[in-house]
């Protein structure tokens, strides 16, 4: 299940898109006003994809995309009635990942959503991923708060484990799978070693490490990672 933010001022279109995205198993947050969406994007938001209409009340989709790109590499899909090459290029130059011209076929929308979410499932070489109020840069192994202050520098093994959690988000990962992926044929560590990694992640990312929101232990099996509540 992925979290999608949809910003569209045409109610019938917004409701139709939201319904079909939810039928595909996604959680959808809706905004009809660019100003409302801008307030949302100024906070610590947790979305896997943002769909933006270009023409919106108060703040345009282009301006929203600029604001998003100052804080996040989350995929952005533009919707617009204007389909000229200049319009498409303008949107992509602002950092959007794709552009869909209205009126569009529902299957095309869902296919583009699927492709963008699939591409976002794994961290790219130049991307960052946000967990709570912390952002991880996978090129430098650094984690920073929303003000940009450096909080921690990960080891290679810690980054590999985080990549696995993000890849398998929402699914239970067994200790054996972690051992196979991270250590392979190398000397196998004890189960306590993995537990220590999880404890360190909780200290860094959780507001209350004893009641984790992101890194969950599944008794007798392994772990589950969620960027939302369980």
Report on this model:
With 230 residues, the chain is of the alpha/beta class. The chain has two domains: 118 residues, Response regulator (Rossmann fold); 98 residues, Arc Repressor Mutant, subunit A (Orthogonal Bundle), CATH 1.10.10.10. It is 39% helix and 22% strand. It has eight helices and twelve strands. Helix 2 packs parallel to helix 3. The chain starts with a strand and ends in a 5-residue tail after the last strand.
Keywords, please?
Arc Repressor Mutant, subunit A; 22% strand; alpha/beta; elongated; four-stranded antiparallel sheet; 230 residues; Rossmann fold; 39% helix; five-stranded parallel sheet
Give a quick precis of the structure:
The chain has 230 residues and is an alpha/beta fold.
How many structural domains can be distinguished in the coordinates? 2
Range of helix content: 25-40%
Cα-based radius of gyration, to the nearest Å:
19 Å
Number of strands: 12
Tell me, rounded to a whole number, the average pLDDT: 86
Indicate the structural class.
alpha/beta
- CATH architecture descriptor text of the largest domain: 3-Layer(aba) Sandwich
Main sheet: strand order? 2-1-3-4-5
Principal-axis shape equals elongated
CATH class of the largest domain: Alpha Beta
